[in-house]
Amino acid sequence: MSYLVLRRQLLRNVPAVRNVRQFSATPVAGSEEVKRLGVIGAGQMGLGIALVAAQKAQVPVTLVDNNKAALDKSLTFMDKLLEKDVAKQRISKEDADAAKARISTTTDMDSVSEVDFVIEAVPEIPDLKFSIFSRLSQICSPHAILATNTSSISITRIAASTTKDPRDLSAASRVVSTHFMNPVPIQKGVEIITGLQTSEATVAAALAFVKRMGKIPSRSADSPGFLANRILIPYINEAVICLETGVGGKEDIDSIMKNGTNVPMGPLQLADFIGIDTCLAIMNVLYEETGDSKYRPAGLLKNMVSAGWLGKKSGKGFYDY
Ligand code: NAD
Prior knowledge:
Blueprint: H1 3-13, H2 15-23, E1 37-40, H3 44-57, E2 61-64, H4 68-87, H5 93-102, E3 103-106, E4 117-120, H6 126-139, E5 145-148, H7 155-160, E6 175-180, E7 189-194, H8 200-212, E8 216-220, H9 228-244, H10 250-261, H11 267-274, H12 276-290, H13 299-307
Parallel strand pairs: 1-2, 1-4, 2-3, 4-5, 5-6, 7-8
Antiparallel strand pairs: 6-7
Helix pairs in contact: 1-2, 9-11, 9-12, 12-13
The structure holds nicotinamide-adenine-dinucleotide (NAD).
């Protein structure tokens, strides 16, 4: 029996679970009712999500980052992206200006109290995400969808952080993952991942909103790494092990995978684009949550994070930028 079928049966048949859901079923914002989006974290994913929402779904976006310098860097990067699109005649100058005008930035997270849908995209640190969702449950409208872009942290645990009373699903039922892929403006697929507490209305709203953003959603279960990263990150980790054990040089590894399996870039270059710290964090979750030694992170991956060689975002990873 698949996880999703099992979960549906659980929620339908177990009286305790059914009662809990009746105790606090919360109506949520439908896709068309999303009049304003909030994005927490203006890094590479948060900025991409904000930009695509402003361009494709044409919703006003409140982009929040607790680091003013990170916000400024993101806005400069956004200007460059839009200028490039205009120069290549992919969009008109008017559309670029309109998209820009829809995005407002702030360092004050309480500004998302007015949004109908919020997507969190802060670094992959469990306690940080839990504290943000605890706060969101207090400040957001009672109908707002509370989505995370986590690559690997359990959605059920994130949802649980919204309350001290596990019977209270008023916020937990609105927690879902909209797992966008990098780079957000290019990659069409978005994984929609449900926690045990997520309501079907929340899933429907998340599916509809990512479609409004021009993306192609698919669903996966709340299992370590979900689908995309359960498959992708061990592949990258294996490439790093091949490098550190001398099976091949970095160019050889990337070349054979790029030219031999028809992927747009090799695994080490891809790791640089994802962020070496993010790759390590996901491997750690896979390893710790499954206890399976096949997910042990490569030593080189750990050392690179210790050295601050985080890939493209820090100017140095497997390659120099
Ligand atoms: P990033 O490091 O580029 O950006 C994170 C941003 O969050 C930074 O600008 C940081 O200043 C900000 N931030 C930190 N604490 C904050 C707080 N308390 N409040 C507001 N802002 C805060 O990270 P990223 O690569 O954009 O990843 C974000 C999330 O998306 C992570 O959960 C990651 O696992 C996931 N993800 C990443 C990728 C990828 O390829 N990078 C792909 C899919 C999912």
